[in-house]
Amino acid sequence: MKAVVYHQYGTPEVLEIAELPMPEPLADEVLIRVRASGVNPTDSVQRSGQFKLLMGKSFPKRIGCDVAGEIVSVGSTVTQFKSGDRVYGMTADFDRVGTAAEYVTMKAKWLAHTPGTLTDIQAAAVPLAAETALQALRDHGKLKLGDSVLVNGASGGVGLFAIQIAKAMGAHVTAVTSARNRELVCTYGADEVIDYATTDMRQLTQTFDLIADMRGGWTVGGIRHLLGKEGRFVTIAPNPVLLLKSFLSQRFGRKRIAAFFVESRASDLESFREWINTGMLRVHIDTVYSLDHIREAHAQIESKRTRGKLVLRIH
Length: 315
Prior knowledge:
Elements: E1 2-6, E2 15-19, E3 29-39, H1 41-48, H2 52-55, E4 61-62, E5 66-74, E6 86-90, E7 103-107, E8 111-113, H3 120-124, H4 127-140, E9 148-152, H5 157-168, E10 172-177, H6 182-187, E11 192-195, E12 208-213, H7 220-223, E13 227-235, H8 240-252, E14 256-259, H9 266-277, E15 285-290, H10 294-303, E16 309-313
Parallel strand pairs: 9-10, 9-12, 10-11, 12-13, 13-14, 15-16
Antiparallel strand pairs: 1-2, 1-4, 3-5, 3-7, 3-16, 5-6, 6-8
Helix pairs in contact: 4-5
């Protein structure tokens, strides 16, 4: 089978297509014929070596964590799926990435049945981005009905899902993005828009119940004045300083800080089903690439100008 691999950390040019043996599912796994795979900023971060302490120095390595496709076979203990089922999901471990391939094995507990209203291309765009947004808002941001939410990176893959999920949970959403993306974020539910190019965030006097940094790069010091009396700040780009501040704020502060890594949960994917099937949660795809154009896909994700999601078409 064809799969994307790389033999050293570096730029998108290190990526190549290789012929690998067909994988065999373990007892708690399924074998998936991959129809599409999402491309995410975390793929670029892993490939460039920023996580090398976690990923190690052994090569070759695989790439990709989002998957949508159909089950070919199931492990001996898997009861919730059968051959032919359409599924989607994401890997949860650094050593289990590899969905940019024609076939992949994954733990059944990381997968859910694909909503009937989604194509495989659309489904592959959902898992990592939407689960990240949901966990940021619901689990770490403690979002509740009537909250005011500020979403940074609102036009990106996670940001557009964050807008929609926050609206579905009854929040008032202010999106931070560029002028060219104003219409896009409003189409997906933003109540107000702040153009970061013309607005000095340090001069804003408005406060918010929850600030969700869905792009990374915001600091606690830079946004603290925007938090309400018991406001919460959540970022999807944790670093040692933010992780420490998150730990301390949970115990001693009235203004909470949360920096986290997304977890793969089939229950979250199942919770999206009604929102997706009723149109409350929509997928915005910027570009669809073939597997042979994986380098171009990674170059685009690194441009930080992607609107919504990038997807690889496999089969």
